[in-house]
């Protein structure tokens, strides 16, 4: 049964759509992923096949490439404005079916403004868009996409569930616990990365975000942090944070101990990229010794004009969200 549907513009999205379908098929099983190149049969109605797939209320991934909304006819008329445009038809069918939309901004393609779209499609801009960097999406973006799809009720394939259980232990936390580990720890977050040198042929990019910051959570807790930037790539990493004396962790720590696993510290890591003035980072809380993942999520913030503050939110894979702010201290 198709549960994951990939909508793309063939002018510039075919290769990435096919690659994404293969990767998601590995995670969820090929039978759950719908891609028109794979699933439409000769002589059949593409609209009927797509409507049948969307009727099962899947997650609909929109590959936002420059041509997805921006493709034009020779006379300059936007294709998305045509009543029979395939991309328009797929989106409208998804909206009518009440499907969950997940826009994926391919290589920094910006989301359109609502007023630039035909009126029936304007709700697309209400959905949170995720980055999809095609040069290195496996370690950066694919895990976040897979986790979000799983959270929305699409089951992983049996083989992947067994492999995951054997390789790590994972907890889906509420935002209160996860952010307490970060914002309430009162520990200086310091970089532990080896030096990275730019290629000799490339000019050194300014390290706009390098330095010390304060992470300010919604309840006003302020925690020192350190960001490291190389070009557009940005990383954050904490030292191990002790949690075994914190009441909000007690139940989970006890459940692990019952299975013979000890947890006293967690480490907070983040990795992502700047797109203009926006910073999107994949977050992960891992055990202090790095042996298993505790929780995952996303940090999405916008940089102020003077690069002194970053404001946005933390979103965990449970769907919990919290407003956060980073303030530069040096």
List keywords for this structure.
8-stranded antiparallel beta barrel, alpha+beta, 5-stranded parallel β-sheet, Lipocalin, 330 residues, 10 helices, Rossmann fold
Structure description:
The protein has 330 residues and is of the alpha+beta class. The protein folds into 2 domains: 4-160, 3-Layer(aba) Sandwich (Rossmann fold); 168-328, Quinohemoprotein amine dehydrogenase alpha subunit, domain 2 (Lipocalin, Beta Barrel), CATH 2.40.128. It has 10 helices and 14 strands. The strands form 2 sheets. It has an 8-stranded antiparallel barrel with strand order 6-7-8-10-11-12-13-14. Strands 2-1-3-4-5 form a 5-stranded parallel sheet, sandwiched between helices. The termini are far apart. The model is unreliable at 161-176 and 182-205 (pLDDT under 50).
Describe how the helices and strands are arranged:
Elements: E1 4-7, H1 10-28, E2 33-34, H2 36-39, H3 46-54, E3 59-64, H4 66-70, H5 86-97, E4 100-106, E5 130-132, H6 137-140, H7 142-151, H8 158-167, H9 175-183, E6 211-216, E7 222-230, E8 233-237, E9 241-242, H10 250-258, E10 265-275, E11 278-287, E12 293-303, E13 309-316, E14 321-328
Helix pairs in contact: 3-5
Please identify, by name, the CATH architecture of the largest domain.
Beta Barrel
CATH class of the largest domain: Mainly Beta
Give the overall silhouette: globular
Element-level helix/strand string: EHEHHEHHEEHHHHEEEEHEEEEE
Number of domains: 2
Tally of DSSP β-strands: 14
Discrete helix count: 10
Low-pLDDT sequence parts: 161-176, 182-205
CATH topology group of the largest domain = Lipocalin
């Amino acid at each position: 049964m198709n549960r994951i549907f990939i909508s793309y513009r063939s002018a510039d999205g075919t290769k990435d759509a096919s690659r994404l379908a293969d990767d998601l098929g590995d995670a969820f099983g090929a039978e759950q992923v719908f891609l028109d190149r794979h699933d439409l049969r000769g002589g059949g109605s593409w609209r009927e096949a797509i409507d049948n797939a969307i009727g099962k209320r899947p997650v609909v991934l929109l590959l936002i490439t420059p041509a997805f909304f921006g493709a034009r006819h020779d006379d300059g008329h936007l294709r998305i404005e045509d009543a029979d445009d395939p991309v328009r038809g797929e989106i409208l069918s998804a909206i009518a079916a009440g499907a969950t939309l997940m826009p994926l901004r391919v290589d920094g393609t910006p989301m359109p403004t609502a007023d630039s779209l035909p009126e029936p499609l304007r709700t697309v801009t209400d959905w949170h868009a995720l980055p999809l960097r095609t040069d290195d999406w496996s370690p950066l973006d694919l895990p976040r996409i897979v986790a979000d799809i799983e959270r929305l009720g699409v089951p992983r394939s049996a083989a992947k569930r067994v492999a995951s259980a054997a390789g790590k232990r994972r907890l889906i936390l509420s935002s209160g616990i996860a952010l307490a580990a970060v914002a309430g720890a009162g520990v200086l977050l310091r970089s532990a990365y080896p030096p990275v040198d730019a290629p000799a042929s490339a000019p050194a990019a300014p390290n706009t975000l390098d330095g010390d910051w304060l992470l300010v959570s919604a309840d006003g807790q302020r925690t020192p942090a350190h960001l490291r930037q190389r070009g557009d790539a940005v990383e954050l990493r904490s030292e191990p944070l002790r949690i075994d004396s914190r009441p909000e962790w007690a139940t989970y720590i006890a459940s692990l101990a019952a299975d013979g696993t000890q947890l006293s510290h967690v480490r907070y890591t983040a990795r992502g990229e700047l797109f203009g003035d926006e910073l999107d980072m994949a977050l992960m809380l891992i055990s202090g010794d790095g042996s298993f993942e505790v929780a995952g999520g996303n940090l999405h913030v916008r940089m102020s004009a003077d690069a002194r503050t970053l404001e946005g939110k933390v979103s965990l894979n449970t769907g919990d969200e919290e407003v956060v702010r980073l303030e530069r201290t040096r």
